[in-house]
Amino acid sequence: MIVLTRLNGARFAINDEQIERLEEAPNAIVVLVNGNRYTVLENLQQIIDTIVNFRAHVIDVASKVEPGAAPGRQPNLALVHSQQDPSPVADPSPFSGAPMPEVESNVDGSLPPYSPPAGDNPFRRPPEQKA
Fold first, then answer.
1. Other CB atoms within 10 Å distance of the CB of residue 4
2. Where would you tag: which of 1, 45, 111, 130 has the fewest CB atoms within 10 A of its CB?
3. pTM given for the model
């Protein structure tokens, strides 16, 4: 988020990744991807510099974060073992309560190409009947 100033002096924060374009006529106008337009006191170069500095700050902070030390909710991930390894799996599917299906992998650990399951696809549209 970057902080800009409206013409009335009120400051507001805006998501810099939602900016589609900047216009200057004579004040700077920030146009978002959803079509919202904000006229601000800052000129184009000041807005661009603010975005560049903000993104550099994000990269700098991210490079200093130790793995596992980031605040906030961490994803609930668990190691899924194969049938040959009966080790317990800690809550593999917290959303459904059902066990996750086994996924076969190649010898190098990569996933094989996707192939649709056998049988009828419930999402496929049935063929049209000719009259």
1. 20
2. 130
3. 0.50
Tokens of 47: 């807005």
Q: What is the DSSP string of 60-110?
A: HHHHHPPTT---SPPP---PPP-TT-----S-S-TTTSSPPPP----TTSP
What confidence tens digit (pLDDT) does each residue in 64-98 have? 766 665 555 545 555 555 555 555 444 444 444 55
DSSP3 helix / strand / coil % (the chain, rounded to 5): 20, 20, 65
Of the candidates 32, 36, 27, 37, the one whose C-alpha atom is nearest the C-alpha of residue 16 is: 32
Which residues are CB-contacts of 15 (< 8 A; sequence separation ≥ 6)? 1
Delimit the domains of the chain by residue range.
2-64
